[in-house]
Write a structure and sequence with these properties.
121 residues, seven-stranded antiparallel beta sheet, globular, 3 helices, alpha+beta
Amino acid sequence: MTVQTRLAELIEHGAAIQLTDPRITLTLAGALWLIKPRRLRWCAIFPEHQGHIHETRYTRTEIYHGRDIAFHQGGVMVAYVCPYEEGPLPVEEVRVALARWRDLLGKHGNVAEFAEFLAEA
């Protein structure tokens, strides 16, 4: 399995992205793999404007323990994606927020608008 396929599966399930600097964890809404330079463009659920789109540069990725994805820049881990249940956020709060996000995304062409929002950052 590729890291791209695994990331798509994690987002479909519900994923937490943990950054190391600053140390923060958010519920992942979507991501794009970009090259030259290598980076992951991503945003958390309920983005309000383009400022909520982030890009994390990396030099290497790995699927960790067959489940999670680690992003490394040089020899340092800069981000980690895992199922939300395994992250540090309160599971029930994330579950409710994901349900609200997915309900909103499913209305009025929002899926296409969100894809454009992420791509055009």
